[in-house]
Design brief:
By secondary structure, the protein is mainly α. Helix content is 79%, strand content 0%.
Length: 221
């Protein structure tokens, strides 16, 4: 309960710092975002690391994935005036994170064990890409497509895995995968389509929920 309380507090401060910067048009509290965004991810890492009963290969892959997510947090939050390649490096970091999560999800379940899930999730991804395509800069189109394919595979495998295992842990991982897909979809529409109302709240809340659920899925039941 203490860990969850600290995560919620740190996430709230992260979101507040980002929203204050956007709504108030000021940088007075943006430091909250810079400090607590990576700290929240570290606290979630602590959750997975502190689990006692776990599958060794599964936990290792999840922990590495959370660390890559931490790298992505840092790259994406840096201002473009300070680091122009931040978005691309952040995208690469989260791509590696999803590959790690996918590795965890195939550690105890065959890949594409439910092909229809991959087909449905893939169709959703294609529809989103068609809508977003005009707003994606030319130099980012290939990286974005590669990232989307990786994200969709991770999410699809999380769903398929739960249908096979049907455990509390696999349900947490499935929910985490879906939350990650939602968070990244919101981020993509906000960046490449049109600004969303309360974007920081929606994107970060679903992102931290996704990471927390995936971290919790490390525990075996």
């Amino acid at each position: 309960m203490l860990k969850l309380s600290l995560i919620v507090l740190a996430a709230a401060l992260t979101i507040f710092g980002a929203m204050e910067h956007i709504i108030g048009q000021t940088d007075q509290l943006i430091w909250l975002h810079y400090v607590f965004k990576p700290l929240t991810t570290l606290l979630i890492f602590w959750v997975a690391f502190g689990v006692r009963h776990f599958n060794v290969r599964y936990r290792k892959a999840i922990l590495i994935g959370i660390l890559f997510s931490l790298m992505g947090d840092v790259f994406l939050m840096l201002p473009l005036t300070l680091f122009k390649s931040g978005f691309l490096l952040g995208l690469a970091s989260f791509l590696l994170a999803h590959l790690c999560f996918l590795r965890a999800f195939i550690s105890d379940t065959r890949l594409v064990s439910r092909p229809w899930i991959f087909l449905v999730i893939g169709m959703i991804g294609v529809i989103n890409l068609i809508i977003l395509w005009p707003g994606i800069p030319g130099e980012l189109r290939v990286p974005v497509v590669v990232y989307v394919i990786c994200l969709l595979c991770m999410t699809s495998q999380a769903l398929a895995r739960h249908l096979v295992l049907k455990t509390k842990a696999s349900k947490l991982a499935m929910a985490g995968g879906l939350a990650f897909m939602l968070s990244d979809t919101l981020l993509a529409y906000n960046k490449f389509n049109a600004p969303l109302a309360h974007a920081a709240l929606l994107i970060l809340a679903t992102y931290y929920l996704a990471l927390y659920l995936i971290a919790r899925s490390v525990k075996t039941y």
